[in-house]
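User: Could you walk me through two proteins back to back? I'd like the raw sequence and the structure tokens for each, with a short line separating them so I can tell where one ends and the next begins.

Assistant: Of course. Protein one, sequence then structure:
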Amino acid sequence: MEKEQFQNIELIEADLEGRLTDEENHRVESLLASDSDFKNELILYQTIISGVRSEKDEHLVEEFRKIDRLQDVAIAQKPNIFFSFNRIAAVVLIICIASTTLYFYSSREEKSIAASLYVDDPGLPVKMSVNDQLALDNAMSYYKTGNYNSALEIINQQIKLNPTNDTLQYYMGVVLIKTGKFEKSIQYFTLLIDRCSTTVFCNDAEYRLGMAYWFVNDMTNAKRIFLKIEKDTLHPYFDPSTKALAEINKGVK
């Protein structure tokens, strides 16, 4: 009984994620037709996911109440204490799986939305330069052709030699975003924000800092920055920041 119970949970999870084989699809259809317990669990899993996605706390509270009612019915019909315990444990496991799955997919969805709205930096003009400037030109050449790892390698080497250079700090942050290292990019953009009065990259860094926060799902800080930009209609990133804020507000109630 217990082994079958947890196999059913795996089936439910795979079914809702679209990972069932043809054989497993037939098994699910058969269980839905013949096993009311399995059908109730599948419906419960679906409604919990729907509740989390709607982000309405009262809905979630009601779903947990449904769990209690289901357990009461199960205990009344089958008063075996071990069966009841396994049943409760199974439903709790379903909730845990649902929550984990939703967090993963919602986080991935947020990153996808953020990426679709992200305004790329065009990079610096590439000139025929020498010495230190040549290295930065090479990095920009790699950056503009989408070879972000090579660009990152060069900028990283240069910033070790000149750690306070605002151009290197800014493009380090830019390339880190392009390579998916969002947390680290936040550090570099923050350095520039802290000295806005002395760098030409202040507005650019401010916008990208907000986007980096969004990429790591830190909605509080992302909103804080985009709200600040939204108050300045002359900010060069006013429009993209307003759009970003609108999207974030759709998901943050």
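----
Protein two, same layout:
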Amino acid sequence: MRSKGFSGKFGEIPAKILRTPKTFPSPTPISEFINFFLCIFFRTVPDKVLAGMQWASDHLQRNTLYSSMDDDIVVHIPNLVSFLKKNFLKPELCQLPWHGEGKSWGRTCLEDLPLLCVYSYQARDTPTRFWFSKWYISYKDFPGRQWPAYCRGGMYIAPVKMIDSLFQISRRMEYLFLDDVWITGFMRRKLEMGDSNIVVGHRKPDF
């Protein structure tokens, strides 16, 4: 990995890339994890998420699929791969001409996939106005009556191309501690594609 030996900062967060211990073998060539030196509580979660997005943007190809999920989510990877291939990774979705022997070939446009809300898609969610709630949002912070469509942070999947764009947008957006609403709602809308770039990842427990 190009990040091997990295020690520095992601944004303002001190971090270090560590190798996976030999006692915990990785089934893939990616055998590193990021150790963040950050006091995590609910209002700093967006910093952690953005740090991961920055790493992905810097070190992964744009057509790599990036997943963000809570630590209490368990996924059956073979089922997830089968689900994605069946529903989203169809060759006919993207045709590129191949100028060789008069033939053409198709490929899956992984980099152009929409944001897939695996855990929960929220089309008409509203801010919590009860001051005693952990998720309280004042009218000063957001005067609107409804959030933009977004994925709840339990789990969502997006191509690194989108993740990179969202990270760049985050550099110039006002901070909101609700990372899922902020990133997959407000930032995503800044991509100027309406809600065509967000979909329900699944409607039943496929994986």
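Residues 1-6, 16-28, 96-107 have pLDDT under 50 and may be disordered.

Let me know if you want the two compared in more detail.
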